[in-house]
Amino acid sequence: MKESVESTLVKPKKTKKISKDILNIIRTTMRNNIELTHIADNKANVLLSLNALMITFLVPFIVPNFEAIKKFHLVVPLGVLVITAFVTIYISTLVLKPSKFDQNQKLLKKGKYVSPFFFGNFFHLNKEEFSAYIKGALSDNELVKEHLTEDLHYIGSRLGRKMTLVRLAFNVFIIGFFSSMTLAIILIFALN
């Protein structure tokens, strides 16, 4: 691998340095996106834990009291609540699931430069291969800008997917929870 990475990479030309202002903007944007990703993960984790606890308490409650639940016609509202909890858990798990991070391995093996700032692009390289690779990848400021742009795009698009799923999980939880509670109240008072 060392020979293929070193021999196929073309030495890029040196260009003008990146200004400190641009570096600060990039650094701040990346930090903000990473903090927002952490917030999305925390929200998904809260939803996952809350719904897992609901199921943990509902199942032991439903089984011994099933006759009373049938008497008060609460099977449907409890079913809606359990389904809501399972769907919310599933969506929250998708938020927390790591994405594919080795998609650029084929490009790397072909001798193309991919961002040396993302671990998924180089974790297969040994120390010597990585050292040679990063020296070449960082030798051209235009290439560095391209790598930073690529990383910003990846972090932003991943954050967008996470936030969309978190929003969906909250909507499912809110609609399902209040629907089951409203249905239970209507059934208890309407049929008794």
Q: What's the layout of helices and strands?
A:
Elements lengths: L1 H7 L11 H43 L3 H6 L3 H22 L8 H5 L17 H11 L3 H50 L2
Helix pairs in contact: 1-6, 2-4, 2-7, 4-7
Description of the molecule:
The protein has 192 residues and is mainly alpha-helical. The chain has one domain. The protein is 75% helix and 0% strand. It has seven helices and no strands. It has helices spanning 2-8, 20-62, 66-71, 75-96, 105-109, 127-137, 141-190. α1 (2-8) runs parallel beside α6 (127-137). The longest helix has 50 residues, at 141-190. The protein is elongated, with a radius of gyration of 26 Å.
Question: What level of helicity do the residues show?
Answer: over 70%
Rounded to the nearest angstrom, the radius of gyration is: 26 Å
Give the helix/strand class: mainly alpha
Total domain count: 1
Overall average residue pLDDT: 85
Number of strands: 0
- Content of β-strand: under 5%
Major β-sheet annotation: none
Report the uncertain regions. Answer: none
Based on CA inertia axes, which overall geometry fits? elongated
Question: Counting H and I runs of at least 4 residues, what is the number of helices?
Answer: 7
- H/E element string? HHHHHHH
